[in-house]
Structure formats: C-alpha cells, structure tokens
Amino acid sequence: MTKRSDRRRQERAAELWHAEQEWRAATRCSELLAVDTDISDRKWRLFALACCREVLTLCPEPWHREAFEQTEIVVDGPNPAAPCRGNSQLWDTYNWSRRWGAWDVWYVRPHSHHSLQSPGEMAAERALIDLALWLEGKRSRHQIFQNVQLALAPGDSTEAVQEREAHDVRFTDVLHEIVGDPFGWIDFDPSWRTSNAVSLARIIYATQDYSLMPILADALQDAGCEISDILDHCRTPGAHVCGCWVVDLVLGKP
Ligand SMILES: [Zn+2]
Questions:
Q1: 15, 90, 108, 243: which sits with the fewest CB atoms below 10 Å from its CB?
Q2: How many domains does the chain have?
Q3: What is the top-level taxon of the source organism (predicted)?
Q4: pTM, full prediction
C-alpha cells in the first residue's frame, strides 16, 4: 500500500463519515439523493424504477408500459454490466418517432395533439423518458424523482406543493427499503446463506411475493442470524419492492 493510496483511503473514510451524518439527519428523499454514498448503480437504478412504477398508471399508451417492462429487464437483468447493449434495446423500445413527437409536444406545443392530457400525465411520461436518458448518463436521478413528484402532485398550488413535500418524505421509505444501510454496519455472516434461506430469497425475488418474508426471517434465524434489523424488516408488515435490501443481502446482490 503506497502512502498516496493510504491517504486517499483515509480521506474517503472521512468523507463517508460526514456522508453518514447527513444520511441519518435527512428527513426527505431529495436530501438522501444528494448524499455522497457508495450505493451501487444497480440500487440507484432499482430506486428509479420503483419511483417510475408509481406513476405508470398515469401513462396511458401501450409503449409506456412496454418501455418500462423493458427497462426492468435491462437494469436488473442477467447482464447488467452491459449497459450499452441494454440501452440500445431500450431506445428501440422507446421508439424514436414517438419519443421525438412527445419531446416536441413538451417543449414546443405543450397542449396540442398529444394523447397525454394532464400536467400529471406529461410529468409521468417525462419521468419514464428521463429514466432512459439517465441510463445513458444524460439525466440525473434527481430529475427523475422531481418528475415523479410532479406527476403525483402537479401544479403550483399550495396544496400541490404540500403534497409533493409529503411524497418527498414518503419516498425516504422506498429508498431505505432498497439500500438498507449504505454504510456497511450490517455484518451479514455468509454462513446464514443456507440453501433454505437462499431458495426462499430466490423465490421472493423472482415472484415479488413478499408474503414469504416472515418465512425468510425464520430461515435466517434457523441459520443463526439474530440481527434485529434484518429479522424485523422481514417480519414487520411493510411495502417491499424489487431490490429489497434483505432479499438482496441473502442473494449477495450488490
Ligand atoms: Zn424489504
């Protein structure tokens, strides 16, 4: 270990210490998004998907759902390390002509012939397209999240602003559900990955059937796990989404 890399490691440890204080003090999702953590790209992609999934019902056209389903496959598929190939598939799905038509409507004729009627629907579609652009490095996760908030509560009224703030607070739960503890304080013993626990986690991941979570807790406890954060997460009723940090931990997904 050279002195330079040693110093860099110490600097990163100090940065992470500050990041952890900011993370624990944050009460809004928009604040959490701004914290400099080592959260994996995959986790951020799953969070962006979870956000967009909430506004999918506002997007009426078949290509919206098709594009979203393709995105789900791309961002957490068998080969997530091949983003270029994945993204080109995504672009095909998004369909250039429709996409540029929509673009034209947003920026040139915001209330003309497009099938999207309301500001909420337009913001929802913008969130989906920002998701595609983000995967190409042309948008930020903040922009996706802002459009999701606008889709859920469009307009400038006091009520809309308050509703967006409420969603900002609510989405902290979604982000925590996916990233868990991003500072590595959960010390997961690999011996807890028994065949029973892993096969349960695989079923949950494949089917998104989270009613099995308490059984996963039992399997982990049988294997010797007594970490309350993990067991409580499985046993407490709550909204789990694809990327649930406990399921990922058992499967060894980053
Ligand atoms: Zn979960």
A1: 108
A2: 2
A3: Bacteria
A4: 0.82
